Amino acid sequence: MPTNRKETQRQTREKLLEAAHASIVQEGVASISIRSICAAAGRTQGAFYSNFSSKDDLLVDLMEIHILEEVSLLRRIVHEAASDTIEETLCILAERLAYIAAEPEWSLLSIELQLHARRDEAFAKRHNATKATCYRVFCDLIEDLVESYDLLPTLPPLQIGIGLYALWSGMAVQGDVAQAMPREQMLLAFFRAMTGLHTMPHGSDRIAESVK
């Protein structure tokens, strides 16, 4: 059966996103251009502009896809960890979030998008809409934890989700900070405080081992 126009456009969009992702990982954010993305994807610049209004538009989509995929993974961890204790599950979540916050290609992309949003009001609206989506999925993650472990969160899940996104993205932007505790411990402390577990003993053998 011949491929219809919508399917062709979907495939082109995916190719462009895949090419941009590969270019960011291999070369970094600063070095990629619409021309290089199109060349890597085997698509024309006309095809690019049929799917995205600018390079920044593509990069926002790429960042959103990355975050949605990562949070989806975290939610699967919660659902599949039914037999684990809440501490074990929080340690796994904290370790994963710390790991992706340390990935240089995504931290640099996050910085670039944040700065551009500060300079361009129209782009800021697009960027803020993407962040709202990210807040929602982080909220879903918190709701999964609350339901799975019968927790009493200290704030509404959406507010915790916004705070978690801000903490995680801030870690990605700042990189290593002198005299700061390891990212895993910071995230674990946040999870404990926001899910009502802050009165439990701080630290854990698992986290301590992971940061030695």
Automatic annotation (TrEMBL):
Gene Ontology terms, MF aspect: DNA-binding transcription factor activity; transcription cis-regulatory region binding
Domain called HTH tetR-type: residue spans: 10-70
SUPFAM superfamilies (alphabetical): Homeodomain-like, Tetracyclin repressor-like, C-terminal domain
Signal peptide start and end residues: none
Pfam families (UniProt xref): TetR_C_6, TetR_N
The keyword Glycoprotein is assigned to this record: no
Record flagged with keyword DNA-binding: yes
Organism: Agrobacterium pusense
Gene3D superfamilies assigned to the protein according to its UniProt record, in alphabetical order: Tetracycline Repressor, domain 2 (1.10.357.10)
UniProtKB keywords: DNA-binding, Repressor, Transcription, Transcription regulation
Residue ranges the UniProt entry marks as DNA-binding: 33-52
UniProt-recorded name of the protein: TetR/AcrR family transcriptional regulator
